[in-house]
Write a structure and sequence with these properties.
The chain is mostly beta strands and about 450 residues long. It is about 5% helix and about 25% strand. The protein folds into 2 domains: about 160 residues, Leucine-rich repeat, LRR (right-handed beta-alpha superhelix); about 300 residues, Leucine-rich repeat, LRR (right-handed beta-alpha superhelix). A 7-stranded parallel β-sheet has the order 1-2-3-5-7-9-11, with no helix packed on it. A 7-stranded parallel β-sheet has the order 8-10-12-14-16-18-20, with no helix packed on it. It has a 4-stranded parallel β-sheet with strand order 24-26-28-30, with no helix packed on it. It is found in: Cell membrane.
Length: about 450
């Protein structure tokens, strides 16, 4: 006998649980025992070493998948279906399930708890939906090069991380409502087209990283409807247009702490619930470690996209801002004098835009904590302010502005260009983003806002 198929009957299989039952057993190839009314795994499976198909679905098998199952037909099994039982977990199995040639694995509709089991590298189809999984998706899952279908829907998974792969095409537009995901990291792939608006169904989402893909879309202000979103990363894509919210009656980004849109190498270590975020930032070969980001550390970074419009005067209301990065966009107009009101500002990068006019003298007087400044490759003119932190900046901070003069540049100013610059003035409406709405995310103690870290990206002129 090579094949046994007794599925969908009313048989009650009797399998003696003793060692004598294993003597002189036929080595079967296919076993299908769906709906066979037992609460445990058949004992006779222990000595099956040539199985290719094993179907024990639609039964009432309860508890753990026994450890001895990890030794059953490890080199031959192709198809395993344990769905629609009451299985809870794997008893002392290896980190990767042991069936080296397995292609089809169904574990759905059980009560499996804990982290997502990792199938072998040969797996093509893997379904483990309708269980009680939680936590992160293991990084090892990204090594399944043959995997065509993966279904872990209707679980309690809180973290989806598939960064640094070769995923391509559009982001799927089938995000179900009621999902419990808190973290989605699809960064460093080749995803294209637009961000699907079905992501608005993820009401518990706290972290969304779509950076380093090929997404071409307008600024997704509609993501502001997500009530728990803390971190949004859109870096190194092709976002364009003005950053605006078409419906100003909606409170956008009520809890946003970090918004990131630049080409930097950042690793996040997220502790959900406590909102403590540690990170390592690698910039120009130098690592900067942040073991814990305090809630008052705030920043705005929209760099490395195709945003246009002017920098709004109302940015001066973001009093707790530590980092401001609008580099590598198509911004126009002048540098607003309101930036001088950001007395906590430590880094400011406005480079590689089309900003015109003079650098406000107020920046050198009032920004006493400013340690990094980059306004290079714009269309600025006039005298570079002196004094204060401006005395510490190198000429590279001002390169690519043919109309600038004075230290630290070698170009001296004429009598006309050396006069004090008048205050700049721009309109928040011209920039597009409604900063009054962004300010709602700060709260009265500025514990939330738009947050990142102390690093400004320096990019070469295209």
């Amino acid at each position: 006998i090579c094949n046994i198929c007794l599925s969908l009957n009313n048989f009650y299989l009797v399998s003696p649980n003793n060692s004598n039952a294993t003597h002189h057993q036929a080595q079967l190839v296919d076993i299908a025992l769906r709906y066979y009314h037992r609460k445990e795994f058949p004992y006779f499976l222990r000595n099956q070493h040539r199985l290719q198909l094993l179907d024990l679905s639609l039964n009432n098998i309860q508890g753990q998948i026994p450890q001895w199952m990890s030794k059953v037909s490890t080199e031959t099994l192709l198809f395993l279906d344990l769905s629609y039982n009451s299985l809870t977990d794997f008893d002392d199995f290896p980190l990767v399930l042991p069936w080296s040639k397995l292609q089809y694995l169904k574990l759905d509709s059980n009560i499996i708890r804990g982290s997502l089991p990792v199938p072998p590298l040969s797996t093509v189809f893997y379904c483990i939906s309708n269980n009680f999984l939680k936590g992160e998706i293991p990084q090892l899952l990204c090594n399944l090069n043959f995997l065509s279908i993966l279904d872990f829907s209707y679980n309690n998974m809180s973290v989806l991380k598939v960064r640094s792969n070769q995923l391509e095409g559009p982001i799927p537009n089938a995000w179900e409502s009621g999902n419990r995901l808190k973290v989605i990291d699809l960064s460093k792939n080749k995803l294209q087209e637009k961000i699907p608006k079905s992501l608005m169904e993820y009401k518990m989402l706290e972290y969304l990283d779509l950076g380093n893909n090929q997404i071409r879309d307008a600024f997704p202000s509609w993501l502001g409807s997500l009530p728990e979103l803390n971190i949004l990363s859109l870096s190194s894509n092709a976002f364009y247009g003005r950053m605006e919210n078409p419906n100003l009656t909606v409170i956008v980004f009520p809890k946003l702490r970090i918004i990131r849109s630049f080409s930097q190498q950042i690793q996040w270590n997220i502790v959900l619930g406590d909102y403590d975020y540690s990170m390592t930032i690698t910039h120009e070969g130098m690592e900067m470690n942040y073991p814990k980001i305090i809630r008052t550390l705030t920043a705005i970074d929209f760099s490395g996209n195709r945003f246009d419009g002017e920098i709004p005067e109302s940015i001066g209301k973001l009093k707790m801002l530590h980092l401001l990065n609008f580099s590598n966009n198509n911004l126009v107009g002048g540098i607003p004098v309101a930036i001088a009101k950001l007395t906590n500002l430590e880094s400011s990068d406005l480079s590689q835009n089309k900003v015109v006019g003079r650098i406000p003298m107020e920046l050198s007087i009032q920004l006493t904590f400013l340690s990094i400044l980059n306004v290079s490759h714009n269309r600025l003119t006039g005298l570079i302010p002196g004094g204060g932190q401006f005395e510490t900046f190198q000429s590279s901070s001002f390169d690519g502005n043919l109309g600038l003069c004075g230290k630290p540049l070698l170009k001296e100013c004429s009598s006309n260009s050396g006069s004090l610059p008048p205050p700049s003035s721009t309109s928040s409406e011209e920039f597009g983003l409604d900063w009054k709405v962004v300010l709602l995310g700060y709260g009265c103690e500025f514990l939330f806002g738009v947050v990142i870290g102390h690093v400004v990206v320096k990019k070469k002129l295209d």
